[in-house]
Amino acid sequence: MSKEFVAARNDRPLIQVTRLSKHYSNGHGVIPVLRGVNLEVRPGEMLAVMGPSGSGKSTLLFILGLLLPASSGNYQFMGQNMLDLSRAAQAEFRRRRVGFVFQNCDLFENSTVYENLEFPLVYAKVERQERPARILAALERVNLAHRIHHPANYLSGGERQRVAIARALVNQPLVILADEPTGHLDRANGHMVMEHFEQIVATGDTALIVVTHDAEVASRCTRVFSLEDGILNEN
Amino acid sequence: MRLGDLMRVSIRQLLRHRRRYWGVILAIAIGTAGFITIITMGRDLKKNFNHDLELLGKATLIRVYFDRRPSFEHQWFYSSSVEALRKLPGVRDASLTVHHPWVVGSWEGQDFNCSMLGVDESFWKVNGLSPGKGQFFTAQDMKDRKRVVILGSELARSIFGRKDVKGSKISIQQELYTVTAVLNGAGLGDYTHFAFVPLTTAEDRIQGVSPANRIYLRCRTWEDVEKVAPLIPGAILAVQPVQGLKVEVLWDQLQRVKAIAWWVELFIYSSIVATLILGGVGIWTVMMAAVRSRTREIGLKKAMGAEDQAIMAQFLAEAVCLSVAASLLGSALGWVSVEVTSLMIHSHPGQGLFLMCVILGLLVAVGLGVAAGIYPSLQASRMEVVSAIRYE
Question: How many C-beta neighbours within 10 Å does residue A196 have?
Answer without folding.
Answer: 20
